[in-house]
Amino acid sequence: MTTTARSLASVDGLQRLTIATPDRPLRLDNGRALDHVEIAYETWGKLSPAKDNVVIVCHALTGDQFAASENPVTGRPAWWPTMVGPGKPVDTNRFFVISTNVLGGCMGSTGPASRRPDGHVWGADFPHITVADMVRAQIALLDEMGIDDVFLAIGGSIGGMQVLQWTVQARGRVFAAIPIATAARQSAQNIGFYEVGRQAIMADPNWCDGAYVEQDKRPDRGLAVARMAAHITYVSEPALKRKFDRRLQDREALGFGFDADFQIESYLRHQGQSFVDRFDANSYLYITRAMDYFDLAADHGGQLANAFRGLDTRFCVFSFSSDWHYTPEESRNIVQALNAAGCDVSYVSIETDKGHDAFLLDEPEFEAAITGFIDAIAEARDLPPADEAKAMARGKGKARP
Amino acid sequence: MTTTARSLASVDGLQRLTIATPDRPLRLDNGRALDHVEIAYETWGKLSPAKDNVVIVCHALTGDQFAASENPVTGRPAWWPTMVGPGKPVDTNRFFVISTNVLGGCMGSTGPASRRPDGHVWGADFPHITVADMVRAQIALLDEMGIDDVFLAIGGSIGGMQVLQWTVQARGRVFAAIPIATAARQSAQNIGFYEVGRQAIMADPNWCDGAYVEQDKRPDRGLAVARMAAHITYVSEPALKRKFDRRLQDREALGFGFDADFQIESYLRHQGQSFVDRFDANSYLYITRAMDYFDLAADHGGQLANAFRGLDTRFCVFSFSSDWHYTPEESRNIVQALNAAGCDVSYVSIETDKGHDAFLLDEPEFEAAITGFIDAIAEARDLPPADEAKAMARGKGKARP
User: Is the interface score ipTM higher than 0.90?
Assistant: First the structure.
């Protein structure tokens, strides 16, 4: 296996692999198929000769494949530096880490911003996708790379949905799974919040029924409102109080106007405005819709335990006490179903006031628990311990020209 | 006192009183003044000879003065039929009930949709208002009606903020107060949610920098999104699960599109679309801003207890267990401050999964507790018992021509 980041870099600086062609289309849950699919991805570390050290990192709604290195397109730093890297819980000295941009995304993978075979941009004609379709594309990518088995699948939020889906869909190929701050089914409240965001985007006249790229417009204002609405759900009320409370922004007294008087307003406006520079509005529509559609039990006779029955994957489920977007209760439902199915499962509930976004932030207890689980499963898989892997990586490093 | 609904009806069928003129302007918290202010209102029941049976009902963000009778403009039924009416907890056989449309509102009171003296519609040039300004206008209305004392002020949400403000601002004139599902200060999370709504409205090109009335346009799509975002916060997650969960709307299977697949989507879209027919977008901006600005302690040296010190008003504070818009904790903060100030206060926490909107819905325990409190304060005020009042009302009714 000689695949590296460099050798696969495509013209625009993002590395991609073609995983579907007219001869070998990607079949989708909605009955349609895509004749041409590229998946953009990044890797870190080195594939072991036994190909037994593969970690797949699944990103959340607005993430991308740049979990552990700077995004060269946006210039933004790695989105999961606390978790993935040399000496981090997902140790790139030890593991061959792959992160893909999801199908439907906007960082190089085929999605609504891609061109159809006829040269036009897909826009809202892009077929609707599901979390299972995203995972199907990731499995196809690994097949293309000659990788059969995944040592660990890890991800938070919709990344956690993908992790659950991986274990079920690539049955027998996933040794361990860490679904974080996620749910086995999207709640009515979350469908509601994402529907608000979609309506905000589709209400923007610059959305042009989804054809804004072809019409050289951008529904930035609608997308910013969508991001603002969603962002509130990623943060707990106590954290908003701690960080902002009613403090004023750059002023001594109330302004009696509609400018951002309060820091919380200024913060949310910034979240909205900076988001539109790095994300595609149609991707936001399609990925949120895939989240809404996620209901793992529904595909297994309405019983979540049925989805998991017979799996020998080791699970470690994480939730955060103040997460009200994907609540600890929803994680416990996953754990109960795994227990009912007789699966190997641990559950870690982290006490924090940081809300849903805690999985992206510096949470020492969270990182320590992930490290502990990974060390245990690595031992169960007979992988070399972290120190040895690090020494080997150093040795290799020195031997390079 | 012979003021009745009929005699004050103005040309467009709404009854109003002028409470400010160029000689007697209404001074606002932001330092500006309004030279012409009309307040639209409704009354039910009959003012007692001693003028000691006045109840003021304060409406919430999207409410109006039609607490106990059909709104003749929208055709919508009374918004508080469980609470106000003959034989109801606020018994119109017993009390003279007044409900005003708030200053800045859009049901007949002066607000951004009103015309300035120069004939142009105010729009976004309307001065910013506060909850204290709203109450100042209500006090002026009662002064105009020759009423000095309020037996009871009652209201939920921003109506509850007005109730708290009434006790402080009309010091010594309010015998009892029932603030429901409210807070003494708007939280950062709530400022955030209303900021999302304002941004949605102001992002709508039909908002026209607030001058849409003059330009014969309506920012309906933005206002609908604002309403959808806010509405989610009025309902608890368990209630959304109970009422909608993931049930599909008029279909057997997922539609793989952006139509309303789920009942929750259809419900929220309906909430948004029906709202724009009855509410003015600029009023939404101004009233939500007044809510953001509400911080009763800030006006009293940062100590909420200071606001209440020396009041002999009897308080009964209500909260609902599943209300996450104005949480029980925020009600308890009010109760603690009232206790610290040595005030007469009861606190009732209602167990329900109906969330913030519970105060508008049929909640027998809530209604019973309100009735109990009102009976007790009526006795303390030496008002005739409910039965006697009813008999008197019946007697009067029979004697009318």
Answer: yes
